[in-house]
């Protein structure tokens, strides 16, 4: 079953065509990762799937409905998006930020409710941000700040989460922390997660479904074991590599070719063997 489907989707900024007649299907209840070289349109595609960018042509279907014909609050109750490097108003606390996730449910007829309070509480607990709820967001570390924003999207209580490079600017520890959190949300709560990642190996480790973009279209989409090959990496990223099995996870692991100390040592060892 598919949550999001794009048919013959073309996206542009002015006359600059970014995505051209693209077809994509996002499986329901799975983790999908968009990969591709810089400027290939990953973030643009994600914004369009969230209805933040109007297509030049084509259609996007969310839960069997044309997303362009849905009300904004109806979309926001089904799908939440976390943009890349979101900016927090100065002085805003974690609790105040997370409460903003309940905006789609507010109206003149329906003010703040017990259900809103419970959703915020659940989001704070799921992201381990309860003890930090009274801290200002701009005083937090990078990993904590990302968790606060993810808590806000969780408070929206949607079945689908879209995240644009959620690990950008984070060190290795915080990258794994955020990805583990998203993995748990998928496994324990069945959330459909679509995110953009630059690290192919992390994409393979966490994704059920990978979509590789190249030349304004989908180059390949499917399970990591099916599409992550040396040829795919060469074609999509213009990089030679070896693809082996990750010894810990059994997923594809990309080992890029290039210069480095190991190459120098190997050359020295070879020269020593020849001379002897």
UniProtKB/TrEMBL annotation:
Residue ranges constituting the ABC transporter domain according to the UniProt record: 4-240
Superkingdom field: Bacteria
Keyword set includes Iron: yes
Coiled-coil segments on the chain, per record: none
Principal location listed in the UniProt entry: membrane
SMART domains: AAA
Membrane topology listed for this record: Peripheral membrane protein
Subcellular location: Cell membrane
Key word Disulfide bond present: no
Keyword terms of this UniProt record: ATP-binding, Cell membrane, Ion transport, Iron, Iron transport, Membrane, Nucleotide-binding, Transport
Gene Ontology MF term list: ATP binding
Cited PANTHER family: IRON(3+)-HYDROXAMATE IMPORT ATP-BINDING PROTEIN FHUC
Name listed for the protein in its UniProt record: Siderophore transport system ATP-binding protein YusV
Source organism per UniProt: Thalassobacillus devorans
Gene name, Swiss-Prot/TrEMBL: yusV
């Amino acid at each position: 079953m598919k949550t999001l489907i794009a048919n013959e989707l073309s996206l542009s900024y002015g006359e600059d065509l970014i995505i051209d007649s693209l077809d994509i299907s996002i499986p329901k209840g799975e983790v999908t990762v968009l990969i591709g070289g810089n400027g290939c349109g990953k973030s643009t595609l994600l914004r369009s799937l969230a209805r933040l960018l109007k297509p030049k042509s084509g259609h996007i279907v969310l839960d069997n409905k044309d997303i362009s014909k849905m009300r904004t609050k109806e979309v926001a109750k089904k799908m939440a998006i976390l943009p890349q490097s979101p900016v927090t108003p100065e002085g805003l606390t974690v609790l105040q930020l997370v409460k903003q996730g309940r905006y789609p449910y507010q109206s003149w007829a329906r003010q703040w409710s017990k259900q809103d309070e419970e959703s915020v509480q659940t989001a704070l607990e799921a992201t381990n941000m309860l003890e930090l709820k009274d801290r200002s967001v701009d005083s937090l570390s990078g990993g904590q700040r990302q968790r606060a924003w993810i808590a806000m999207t969780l408070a929206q209580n949607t079945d689908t989460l879209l995240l644009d490079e959620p690990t950008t600017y984070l060190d290795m520890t915080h990258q794994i922390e955020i990805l583990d959190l998203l993995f748990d949300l998928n496994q324990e709560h069945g959330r459909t997660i679509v995110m953009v990642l630059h690290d192919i190996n992390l994409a393979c480790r966490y994704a059920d479904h990978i979509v590789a973009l190249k030349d304004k279209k989908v180059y390949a989409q499917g399970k990591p074991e099916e599409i992550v090959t040396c040829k795919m990496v060469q074609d999509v990223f213009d990089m030679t590599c070896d693809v082996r099995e990750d010894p810990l996870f059994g997923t594809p692991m990309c080992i890029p070719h290039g210069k480095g100390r190991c190459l120098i040592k190997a050359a020295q060892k070879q020269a020593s063997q020849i001379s002897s």
